[in-house]
Amino acid sequence: MEKIKVLLADDQELILESLHIVLSMEEDLEIVGLAKNGEEAIKGCEQFQPDIVLMDINMPVMDGVAATAQIKERIPAIKVIMLTSYREVEYVLAALSHGAEGYLLKAIHPRDLAAGIRVVHAGGTLITQEMASKMIKSMNNTSSTKSNEYGLSTREIEVLHKLALGLRNQDIAEALFLSEGTIKNYISTIYSKLNVSGRREAARKARDSGIMDH
Prior knowledge:
There is one protein chain. This protein is an alpha/beta fold. It folds into two domains: 134 residues, Rossmann fold; 60 residues, Arc Repressor Mutant, subunit A (Orthogonal Bundle), CATH 1.10.10.10. It has a five-stranded parallel β-sheet, sandwiched between helices. Helix 1 links the parallel strand 1 and strand 2. Helix 7 crosses helix 9. The chain is elongated, with a radius of gyration of 19 Å.
């Protein structure tokens, strides 16, 4: 029987070690690599070609969300499960939007963790009903937590921030792991929502209205 190859990414040595020990006890799992940040996780994926990555969200150098985006772009076949210590909803949603297969809370019982890995390996996803309803809410209410008078979505505010900093479309695209065409679409939507015709005007209006304080 072929084992499921797993890469573990967590900046806390203790968690990394305990995950390693616990999961190694499962006959059908094989830990092929350990990473302490997002960059190491990407390198580990290229080197070991794991089936599954257990990815911590908050890590130095590069966080789990950014690493997930890059892994999914480079090696889409690798499946990513986010590991979260508390309900970091926004981060989990961001990771899922980049193609992560789901998330598990770190406090989970090792048996359930192994079961979760098997579900994802078999082509399933790990999203609780609670998270699914939050996702639907955030999709319906595009201006989610960062509501503002112009009805800009969280993503549009991110683009606007970078626009106001003077970044070129190409730079914004790279920073947000999106295509330049997508950024152009965002910018035209932002302009029409703010009722402005250019960057300077958009930045000024954003600052005047307090959107940029987020």
